[in-house]
Write a structure and sequence with these properties.
Two copies of one chain form a homodimer.
Chain A lengths: L7 H11 L2 H4 L10 H19 L5 H4 L3 E3 L2 E3 L2 H12 L18 H35 L2 H13 L2 E6 L15 E4 L5 E11 L8 E10 L9 E7 L1 E3 L5 E4 L2 E6 L10 E6 L6 E5 L5 H37 L22 H33 L3 H41 L6 H8 L9 H12 L6 H17 L4 H28 L1 H5 L2 H26 L7 H31 L13
Parallel strand pairs in A: 3-6, 4-6
Antiparallel strand pairs in A: 1-2, 4-5, 5-11, 5-12, 6-7, 7-12, 8-9, 10-11
Helix pairs in contact in A: 1-9, 1-16, 3-5, 3-6, 5-6, 6-7, 6-8, 6-9, 8-9, 8-10, 8-11, 9-10, 9-16, 9-17, 10-11, 10-12, 10-13, 10-16, 12-16, 13-14, 13-16, 14-16, 14-17, 16-17
GO molecular function, one term (chains A, B): oxidoreductase activity, acting on the CH-CH group of donors
Protein name (chains A, B): Acyl-CoA dehydrogenase
InterPro entries (chains A, B): Acyl-CoA_dh-like_C_dom, Acyl-CoA_Oxase/DH_mid-dom, Acyl-CoA_Oxase/DH_mid-dom_sf, AcylCo_DH-like_C, AcylCo_DH/oxidase_C, AcylCoA_DH/ox_N, AcylCoA_DH/ox_N_sf, AcylCoA_DH/oxidase_NM_dom_sf
């Protein structure tokens, strides 16, 4: 098997030792499921990811989507990969059995998806977007909408998109201008242009279902006037099959730095006044519905970024073991044999950074997936609420801090390969380019920082922050005996961050949002660093206790030494950021506009 | 003029206020030169950079060098740009007047080159490589070699390359295998393969002069057995014109992530035993000669990286002023007009990072150029020696720390442009890709860190470090009155770093090179951060005193606020790194080989 993909032992370790998947299987929703079934699913994912996703990784970058005779042409391997994904049932794996799904935990599904993300994230985007759109219809659509769309999207017969951004409104969804005019039959005439729509047009399925935000005529300005619509490429006929074209036109393709296999489009809806949309749920609640989808998407972006870090890590680790270059410092004999790159301390530093980010994101992303399962399926309401609160805190951190860290990891992969890493003969430069999107899309990272500091930490009088703090406390108490230094360091850092949070919230009360939110990036830097240290301590504790066969000495040592690496070199940066935030006072955090 | 290029006021500020170019003009070498002449040269550079380099920036990335019928085909605009550069006399600008040069200070030449680096670094690489090769011949070649090659290289009739690396020997030059067999006429038969040779083949000039490292048969193993050769693509006839082919064969092109306009080649020398090279200087001294060139090249790499940061800064600054997006935090009225991106605090943070790196590198690079002038032309020997020592310290820092920082700057530029920044319709993604080479070539950044900690700080019993420390002291005493906080912070940081240096040198004495050099990256991180703070304090002092007309309030405020930004957010990282290095003890800095 290819070295690029996630280590299956790591997946098993996360499920069994870190996440205690056995306890999740006690939820009524998952009754009767078997741990061995999960392994079978994961094995299938790994096989398809290798044979049908990884196989065209370079090709779909080189031969990016093209417009020919008005149609989007993709390398055929993309459709083959997507078909294999759908045929194996991955798009419906988490859905109810009565919908034809497997009713698997989202945790297991996300673990399976990690293989696809590491293998070829641009091809994976097609089914992932479709799954996200289907989840949105399932959560907020009418019974009729579910009947008409859901099954076909799960099977891969129809695809899905998110049509939010417009050319003048990227981060500022408040300024969306696309309009929806009520028609007599209860549907709406949609009119407007959308930008950055991934998967907006292609010929893989029989239809494309755009989940589109628009403003019903007369609706309030701003985000409170946005409604959510289902806008299919082809209108459905009486039998639910694609019929007449729905006046959805491709206006152009965006040509990107990476992530090229995912066609990215400029779309026009209703240029000829013939575009019909179906309202989802109630009017003017579109953005709150969309956030349902976006929060999952943000977890997905963080995970995807981390799995690209994983891919780069595995590529550069293999290279570092193979490539003979140089001699140890102090070796004066030029006739002494060269040593592998991994023998050089700084190469191990660059590998450790990557391992920390890659495996740390896997651990955190799967933990978030477990919380998604708990939020929806935990028997007790208090557990559901607690999971919800923790997700509110961690989602922006996973999306933002970990996607930034993943770029650092990918840069280290390129650096380890040196000149070779800078060529297109090796995957690492493409992995970086693909990954560069993640800090931008689904809410640019600065937006995540504002979300964390401006909304989440104060949510329900700090209940979300407390719920997350409780998770840290649990890990601390588990670590006290075997990891006393880390126990103290993390405890102190969390206390410090909590104090800084108070200071910033007070500053907001005293001086307003602009002053308190200006250094939001520094705050999320500190927060993310602490989350990273915590998720590694959690893994180290699990590794030091675990006795399963797949946990060999190298595996165990890797987890524990990487934890120590994170605590030695990374966590102190969080403490520094706290100090900087504390001493900032009420002055300007950054140079003023007229200083540029 | 295009916003991309360096701000001419910044160049003038550096020359007049920071570098005191007037005092340099007192050197006998530059007697009779006029400050206005320098401005004319700089104006010409800016015009050619805009009209003949910037014009094909995207094109030479899109249409990268190709091999057709055995020849390298470049977009014709590259040759036009290079020709304009040579025709304007830039390649000989620093050479003796009797050689047809202008005898200008290297400082002024480097300031002119900054425009070309910001406009199109891949096109600039051709004349820059030729200049470096010519400088090497001038420094170490015989009189006959100078007569045969130098004039033609200055005019752009011949081009030059550096042919060092081999497929199995990138960082480890010790392992070069290319051989040189003495021939009866005193020349050598060259045989071997070279890798990563930039500009190794093209059709722009009448000849290409490879400055090649090879091992004379029977020479010692390792770097002490390497000799330097001139190996022309075509042998020179009696008149010095290109004649017979010299058995130099193009074996292939490397396809890179960026920097694509510079053709990068795999070269075979002497496949048919017909490749003749001329020894430069003495046998087995090749690497020491090459280091003459490489040290200049390393300054050039640092400067180039910084000028790409400058380009990205200017692109994203223009965008941030123009693009209207979102409203201030706390603004609840969705009908309120949007504000430009620069109105958002975090965008200003990302602009400030870029400004700090871009203008900081310009200031440091030109200061290094001044030291190059002093090293060669200062009337007193002590001044020449002092300049030499300071360059020994700062060169690896400029090459390494500033090229890493420049990537962070370019990432910020992409982030400011958001989705647009991720497309190839805007320059910032290409600027990043071009820049990604800089931490790799001319000695990977890890090598620079080893060079600084393992060689430079201990050089001549610490004389180099002391000479550089003296520069910091001078700036400190100038800053005490107007910048008391910065005065204290930088003084403390430098004291701390000096103590850490002692600790690490002692560790080397006690435990050997491997233990002491392992955290070399952390050491250069601290060092570079302090250099950054120092160069900004130097600029702030100059800006607060300067009274010239081109220094308006915005310019002055920009320098001073960026200095404060660096001291507030960046310098403390150096202090943290020092603390980490101090507490490291003798344990392993990073996970062991068997932890991966």
């Amino acid at each position: 098997m290819n070295d690029r993909l996630i280590d299956p032992a790591d997946i098993a370790f996360q499920l069994d030792e870190v996440l205690d998947i056995d306890s999740l299987m006690l939820f009524p929703r998952f009754a009767g499921q078997d741990r061995a079934d999960y392994d079978a699913i994961l094995g299938t994912a790994r096989t398809i990811a290798t044979e049908k996703f990884l196989n065209h990784y370079a090709k779909s970058d080189r031969e990016e989507p093209q417009l020919r005779d008005g149609s989007v042409v993709l390398p055929p391997e993309i459709a083959e990969g997507v078909k294999a994904f759908h045929d194996a049932g991955f798009a419906g794996a988490h859905h109810d059995e009565e919908l034809g799904g497997l009713q698997l935990p989202w945790t297991v599904v996300q673990a399976a998806f990690a293989y696809f993300q590491a293998a070829n994230i641009a091809t994976a985007a097609y089914p992932f977007l479709t799954i996200a759109a289907a989840n949105l219809i399932e959560a907020h659509g009418s019974k009729a909408q579910k009947e008409r769309y859901l099954g076909r999207m799960i099977s891969g017969d129809f695809f899905g998109t998110m049509a939010l951004s417009e050319p003048h409104a990227g981060s500022s969804l408040s300024d969306i201008r696309t309009t929806a005019r009520p028609r007599e039959d209860g549907t709406y005439a949609i009119k407007g242009g959308k930008m950055w729509t991934s998967g907006g047009e292609h010929e893989m399925g029989r239809n494309i279902v755009h989940m589109l935000l628009a403003r019903i005529e007369g609706a309030p300005a701003g985000i409170k006037g946005l409604s959510l619509f289902i806008v299919p490429r082809y209108r459905l006929d009486a039998d639910g099959n694609p019929g007449e074209p729905n006046d959805v036109a491709l206006a152009g393709l965006n040509h990107k730095m990476g992530y090229r296999g995912t066609v990215n489009t400029v779309m026009n809806f209703g240029d000829n006044d013939g575009c019909i949309g179906e309202l989802v749920g109630e009017p003017n609640k579109g953005l709150s519905y969309m956030f349902h989808m976006m929060n999952e998407a943000r977890i997905g972006v963080g995970m995807g970024a981390g799995m690209l870090a994983y891919a780069g890590y595995r590529e550069s680790l293999a290279y570092a073991r193979e490539r003979q270059q140089g001699r140890p410092p102090g070796e004066k004999d030029p006739a002494a044999p060269q040593i592998p790159l991994i023998g050089h301390a700084d190469v191990r530093r660059m590998l450790a950074i990557q391992k920390a980010v890659a495996e740390g994101t896997l651990a955190l992303g799967l933990l978030c997936a477990r919380w998604v399962d708990e939020r929806q399926w935990a028997p007790e309401k208090s557990a559901r609420n607690e999971a919800h609160l923790k997700l509110e805190i961690v989602t922006p951190v996973l999306k933002s801090w970990f996607s930034d860290a993943a770029l650092r990891a990918n840069e280290a992969a390129i650096q380890i390969l040196g000149g070779y890493g800078y060529t297109r003969d090796f995957a690492v430069e493409q992995i970086y380019r693909d990954n560069r999107l993640n800090p931008i899309h689904e809410g640019a990272n600065a937006i995540q920082a504002l979300d964390l500091l401006g909304r989440k930490v104060a949510l329900q009088d700090g209940a979300a922050l407390k719920a997350f703090g409780w998770e840290i406390s649990k890990t601390l108490s588990e670590s006290r005996k075997d990891f006393p230094d880390e126990y103290h360091a993390l405890g102190q850092a969390w206390t410090r961050l909590s104090a800084v949070t108070e200071t910033l919230l007070q500053r907001q009360a005293d001086h307003g949002a602009a002053a308190s939110l200006a250094p939001a990036q520094s705050y999320i830097d500190a927060f993310g660093n602490i989350v990273m240290a915590w998720i590694w301590l959690k893994q180290a504790v699990a590794a030091s206790k675990a006795g399963r066969a797949y946990i060999g000495e190298t595996f165990r040592k890797g987890k524990i030494e990487t934890c120590r690496f994170v605590f030695r070199w990374e966590l102190p940066k969080a403490v520094l950021a706290c100090a900087q935030l504390e001493t900032l006072g009420d002055g300007e955090a950054y140079p003023a506009e007229d200083a540029f």
